Fold these 2 entries.
Entry 1:
Amino acid sequence: MQIAILLYDRFTALDAVGPYDVLNNLPGGEVRFVSEQTGPVRNESGNLALVADATLEEVTSPDIVLVPGGPGEADQLTDGPLHEWLRSVDRTSSWTTSVCTGSLILAAAGLLTGRRATSHWLAVDQLRKWDVTPVRERVVVDGKYVTAAGVSSGIDMALTLAGKITGDRVAQSIQLKIEYDPQPPYAAGSADKAPGDIVAELRARSRFILQGPNA
Amino acid sequence: MQIAILLYDRFTALDAVGPYDVLNNLPGGEVRFVSEQTGPVRNESGNLALVADATLEEVTSPDIVLVPGGPGEADQLTDGPLHEWLRSVDRTSSWTTSVCTGSLILAAAGLLTGRRATSHWLAVDQLRKWDVTPVRERVVVDGKYVTAAGVSSGIDMALTLAGKITGDRVAQSIQLKIEYDPQPPYAAGSADKAPGDIVAELRARSRFILQGPNA
């Protein structure tokens, strides 16, 4: 079972690595980090680089495709090699998935048209641009398309997916191995729960948060 | 505020990247991935590489030091350049921290002697070897030493640390930005909660899980 995780400039690292450390534990799972070119791909801050070990051309029929989000998504909303690759691998994938604003890239590539999907809470409404129904849930499954909300939600998405692929028992075993028994020190992880003034402040900085310092 | 995240061969990626995407959002935070040599450092599976942008010699006085865990910790329990660096930066650090079996490295370097600390649930008892009191909690704070349990617990640790450094408000804002409102599909993330047969199975494979395929 080949799992392709797409990297592009200014992606968000946890979007990719949270699901990675779940899906890489699937029995028979073989993860490849893929990008237009092999070599280091920098995140939105430039102080982290993950290495792409394969080019788009080298990964032609992954079983699972995962698109992380991040400020760089803004550069990936127009047609080009990345969209072509996504449309191509989606023809044979068992699961096409995203974390955070990665769903905007899938939507822009035309893969979510008419479907339900989610994204980072500050970005989810943008899905309407591509005739996608925005859903404010942490993990949204519509057929083989599985989308997650912001950044850290990719872990929940990947465990959900692991359960669908291998059954509850293996997924639970993975959850125990990565000791995913979350105990956040605050109840501030969603716009419904966080203090109103903090929600308002992030909304006001929405463009900066979603697209980065150069937006 | 400089944050040094240590990389070594066969580390576990989420141990490093979970806290990274919290601490990198601290106002004035400047993260450096540091290792004995610059360049790609591979995780325990070999199919993921994070780039170290600085050598140990280049990072001499970080405010926060973070040591991830992973099967490669078994190679980092004897004295050498890495222990020397840890002891050196610990002299001036404000916080010395670890995720998962990273605490075994801190303990072996002599930095946790007489203190309370935690680690991955399968490894926590090993801390006794170095006169450290093992504590089965998700995040343990003992003075400036902050240790986290297995893999995913680094996110909780980093948010706890963010709160201590910058106050609750900034930490809550970071939590909302990364949408950390965990909703695991199972209640299987700790040995107390997971089905007993799964706990027993992982205990039986403990050496393999902690030290990797070559153990």
Note: The longest helix of chain B spans residues 153-166.
Entry 2:
Amino acid sequence: MEKLYTGKTKDVYQLENGNVLLKFKDDCTGKDGKFDPGENSVGLTIEGIGRENLKTSVHYFELLKAAGVKTHYVSADVENATMEVLPATVFGHGLEVICRLVATGSFIRRYGEYMEDGTRIEGGYVETTFKDDAKGDPLVTKDALAVLGVMTPEMYDSMKEQTLAITKVVADDLAKKGMDLYDIKFEFGYDKNGEVILIDEIASGNMRVYKDGKIVDPMDLTKMILA
Amino acid sequence: MEKLYTGKTKDVYQLENGNVLLKFKDDCTGKDGKFDPGENSVGLTIEGIGRENLKTSVHYFELLKAAGVKTHYVSADVENATMEVLPATVFGHGLEVICRLVATGSFIRRYGEYMEDGTRIEGGYVETTFKDDAKGDPLVTKDALAVLGVMTPEMYDSMKEQTLAITKVVADDLAKKGMDLYDIKFEFGYDKNGEVILIDEIASGNMRVYKDGKIVDPMDLTKMILA
């Protein structure tokens, strides 16, 4: 298999059938030996975390498939920590799509003058940021994405609609387990027909979840999702 | 006349006919005695600049009236440096609407990875930021403005459409004078029927203008606009 890309937490290989294989690694983003999904460099290795993240992703990709939401997910081999996915092109040099059900974090840092931390956002709010550490992951609007040639307004509308639907599937699953999803981030790409689909993974490190009024640590969250 | 508000560069009075009177002052925003339209505190006083800014605003408000764009402008008394305007409510605690015809400044600081400084943006690009020095005037999307209860999506669409039309009127006027409008910022409000209209002023300090490849100083720009 030809290796296409060596990532921080995943390696990417070309499959002969035209699909792509993601190999989940035990390397985690973090700082000073402490796991932090918001960090952009590998900070530590946790034995078996690659498989745990893969199992979490498979759990949600299967729920999405059942709900009729098409994603890049094809199949997984948990033993070998690999997931087969459809080929897709990422938007720009990395774009994060955030869906917020409860206003907190950077949203409140920006707009705290207008909304109290912890306010529930009816129906959810979707925003996009460029992955760019040096620039502090700048917010980018639908109109700017079009001007910059990153995606068409129609692609944005499809991505936003899918984000709201996918977030609802994840939030409903967490609610059944007694947990409250505050916000979640995704990555999208587009296939050879220009169709926008969810790519990458859906793991504990990509969401902020509360239980009984307290934030749930990503490691505990994985266990509770897979319980 | 009842004084409604004491501003940095304008005072605001209630008129008996229901309209509002803006009194343009000679105080300018700036720092260390140097005029800087981007600063938020009064830095110096320039004899007669209130009247010059009023004349510039009248010039553009009259052009807009002729082009069929309704604004808050009713009439002006240049001698006394006052402008009569329709009453309007501002959005939130201050919202700036920026229209960019050439990508530069904060747009490039945010998105320089995707576009070269000085790239012309066909048709123009509109974005909104909250006036909030401590937070660095954060960008805010159409969806966030709705979630925060600042304006409805329909109000945003009207504001964006007007911004593009108004920018074209100003850019065409500057082009006739041999100048090139890069970007311009506006303030909008809404009247008692919820109709969105341009408020405040249209002065040299609100736009970035180039001539023969060099940026034009706001004081020189005023003279060239009024020449």
Note: Chain A touches chain B through 28 residues (CB under 8 Å).
